[in-house]
Amino acid sequence: MYIHEHNNWTDFHWKSDDIALLLDEVTREQGKLYGRLSSLGFDSQLQAMAENLTHDVVYSSEIEGIQLNADEVRSSIARRLGLENIKYTTPSHYVDAVVAVMLEATEHYGLMLTKQKLCAWQSAFFPTGFSEGSQIEIGKYRTHEEHVVSGYLGRERIHYIAPSPERVEEEMEHFIEWFNSEKPISPVIRSAIAHFWFVSIHPFEDGNGRLARILGDMFLARGDKSRFRFYNISSEINRDKNHYYQILERIQHGDGDITEWLVWYLKTLLAAIQEANTLVSTTLNKSFFWMHVASIPLTERQTYTLNLFLDGYEAKITSKAWAALNKCSKDTAIRDIQDLLKKGILREDIPNAKRPSYSIYYGSDSDVLASLFSNVSIKEEGTDSYLVATYKSSTPIHERILKLDAERYITGDLPLEHLLNKYCAYLSNMY
Fold first, then answer.
1. Cα separation of 29 and 321, whole Å?
2. Is 206 labelled a binding residue?
3. How many structural domains is the chain composed of?
4. What is the number of other CB atoms lying within 10 angstroms of the CB of residue 279?
5. Residue 85 has pLDDT above 70, yes or no
6. 210 labelled ligand-binding
7. What CATH number does residue 345 fall under?
8. What is the mean pLDDT of residues 156-163?
9. What is the tens place of the pLDDT at every residue in 373-418?
């Protein structure tokens, strides 16, 4: 029996004690994130938002098996946000349309939701009227049965059968009325409910998952009272799509108790906020660096390559890597690097090494910075590496770092002061 076959099926209920601590933790982490963001200038906030929205659009589509070009998405978002100093790639009309939907929903999070708006958003996902080679109904609610299936033709497994097409109009009127109403429920919980409720109605022939995640984002924006979106749940769902679909299926076969869904949603959202903190650290460090070198003349090639490494390009800075990235001669790369060494922008990792490598100097005295840390260690969590330490005897530090940097530090190829300078220089400007 499916959840929508119960009377009053949308009278969802849950065990408050099972989610209370998680909800408190999400709220705390949201506050910490926005506290850190307050130290960023407006342009840096826009850059962080653009990167987050890029991940949101790309991964929300990838969950549905649709691969978008991240550079096209980033360019479309950057242009719409008015960002400069971005290497633009001309986006397709499709990418532009998908980005427009996301920005309209999150920038105008307080506007009333309507059937017309939902239909327009769904149409934007399918400008040709086709999905995976098949013509579909666009810009209107579905007029046929909708089965969620997996497996090969002839051996399909039915996971869920949505409400009949005759019920969709009424079900959606009820959903939209709830969405636009004021309820004494946490916006985070309403985000989770909106996501589950919408995808369970499955009002359109295709695009329901992406729209459900967008509607969830709208409630999160309402809760944050900000059009600036710095975290997204899509990238975390995409890490473990199978678990996402399994949870949905179990609750869609239930009696309206959505506790398990809420617990999963809150844990996933918590991971998303923690991921956003990594992005914010990168943005803070990058902003700190460019403030430090603002008056130093650099060539276009030097600026481009420094930005690559500042954004997390995973490689040692060597003359060989520099030449490969810029398609220039090794002699040109050496001249570029020597110039940056003289200007104090790069530093040798190991002096007089046979095959020298370099680290970017972010502007905070490396030796002084290192002296402020204690209990420094590298920890592996899942597939990621983290720099764990205590700053000034009281502030816990937990920064995700590149695998390569973790390995280099452990083997003695990357000095501690260079590691801390790369990932924690922003602290000099905050504490």
1. 38
2. yes
3. 2
4. 20
5. no
6. yes
7. 1.10.10.10
8. 88
9. 999 999 998 888 999 999 999 888 999 999 999 999 999 999 999 9
- Whether residue 91 sits in one domain with residue 211: yes
Tell me, yes or no, whether 39 and 106 share the same domain: yes
From 249, 284, 319, the end of a domain falls on 284
Q: Indicate if 123 and 226 belong to the same structural domain.
A: yes
Is 103 marked as binding a ligand?
A: no
Using DSSP's 3-state secondary structure scheme, residue 400 falls into strand
Domain-embedded: residue 50: yes
Tell me how far apart the terminal alpha carbons of the chain are, to the nearest angstrom. Answer: 56
Q: Which domain holds residue 174?
A: 3-284
Flag whether 229 is marked binding.
no
Active-site residue, from 4, 55, 195, 202: 202
d(CA 2, CA 251): 9
Please state, in angstroms and as integers, the Cα–Cα distance from residue 172 to each residue in 29, 177, 181, 326, following that order.
33, 8, 14, 53
What value, to the nearest 5°, has the Cα angle with vertex 340 and ends 339 and 342? Answer: 65
Mean of pLDDT over the chain: 90
pLDDT in tens, 127-139: 887 666 677 788 9
Contacts of 15 (CB under 8 A, 6+ apart): 257, 259
Residues 280 and 299 in one domain: no
Alpha carbon of residue 240 to chain centroid: 14
207: annotated binding-site residue?
yes
Query: What pTM does this model have?
Result: 0.81
Cβ–Cβ under 8 Å, residues 99 and 229: no
Pair 48, 154 in one domain: yes
User: Of 263 and 147, which is predicted with more confidence?
Assistant: 263
Question: What does the block give as tokens for 11?
Answer: 């009278």
pLDDT higher than 90, residue 69? no
d(CA 407, CA 399): 15
**211 known ligand binder:** yes
CA 352 to chain centroid? 41
Question: Are 279 and 305 contained in the same domain?
Answer: no
Q: Closest Cα to residue 266, out of 317, 309, 216, 307? A: 216
Confirm whether 4 is a catalytic residue: no
Q: Is residue 289 part of a domain?
A: no
Residue 156 has pLDDT above 80, yes or no: no
For residues 16-28, average pLDDT:
95
3-state SS, residue 122: helix
75: left (phi over 0), alpha (psi -120 to 50) or beta: alpha
Q: Is 31 annotated as a binding residue?
A: no
Extract the tokens encoding 67.
């691969």
**Range with the poorest average pLDDT among 52-61, 146-155, 173-182:** 146-155
- Residue 420 within a domain: yes
Tokens read off for 91: 């986006």
